[in-house]
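Quick log. Single chain, no ligands specified.
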Amino acid sequence: MKIGSFVPEQAKTSLYAMAGDDCSLHHDLSELTPKQQYDHWENQVLTCALQVALNGLGKPQDYVAMATPFVEPVWADLLTHYRAMFESMGLGIVARDHLSFHDLDAFYPSVAKTLPEVELVNLYMFSGSNAVLHQNEQAYSISRNVNSKLHFALNAPSAGIPVPQTEIYTKGALRDGKASAFFDSHPEGLMVKLLGLAGARNVFRATDLSECLSLIDEYDDTVEVLLQEILQADQWQEMTVDLTVTPESVEISNVRQILFAGGVWVGNYISGDLPLPPEHQRTLVAVGEYARAQGYVADEGVNCGVDYFINGDDVIVTEINARWTGGLFPTEFLRRLGIAESAVAFFDMVQVDDLERIKGFQLAHLHPQIHSSFAYVPMGFTPFKVDVDGAERCFLWQLVVGDFAAFISARNEQLSGDIFPTATLILEEALA
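-> predicted structure:
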């Protein structure tokens, strides 16, 4: 069998094994700081929602490795509900007996002991935690380079790829004041980026050198810190695409607008109307060619995510991800369901006690809804109860197709305004 981070459109039989691998790309998991430990755990939790989604995106003959909490009654029942919704929408879901369950702390060693006979093992990315599966040091090294914010900032300009103004220092050099001039020349502050982790957990905004040092206080003096100019939101719009990279070509498979509310990421807006003029396309394809030149490529096609900013025809690329991306899943759901309408993809935290009511709401508005201005497309959930303000909550992951305001109105009428709180922020701020 071949092992890698292949694009979803595979006719070959596949095992999907994905469990929060970002941190082990650059860090030894046994030596994480307390904050890194929590961030890594949170990333593992969110990745479980991807495992649910793969039930619907995989073929009946495929396999999915999942976390052991999914066998607990409340989550097993919810997984059955999601699989039924996937089938109702017309997806050919992975067979129930093709699911396997593994402890997150020893996920890949457990998967390695129970490998089914498939043609492909599809990883989220080549990383240290899944080395027991890929056993490919060269692929691991390529993944470390191509996924590295520092490596990209240093090498992309020589490949003709525009990046923000960037300087890189060790923490020790920062303590010696080496970046004072860079901060002085950017009174609005700088972005501070570190290697490892995912979902902006290693990205901060600092107004001055003192704040920068306080944000990275837990790290030792040898850690490398990337300082980057801030691209102002009133001038630049943040976007992301997925590329399919093969030995013969680099193709743009989707484009998405990143949605922010309160200065934090809240979701993705997906629409065929999003700008992708020739000037953008040339730069984005050049990024894929850069990744391929680094060795990130496979005959089956590999996925490469690109985060970039646009201002008219101008493009600035901030980072690339030689792996599956969270945004790849919703675009793949839309593609397989034949949905051409605009959609918003987002995670939201809900109370576990509200799940039965939410199930009814999901079914009432499940795609396709012929006589509705919006449709609900479920993607996944996290099988962990997280205490927030004295209430047990979990994450749901979904797409709302069509009129997002109509979705909010239906939620208010049939559930309550306290359910799907992030959706309210999306409507009031991100889509305003």
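The chain has four domains: 2-146, 165-229, 233-321, 341-430.
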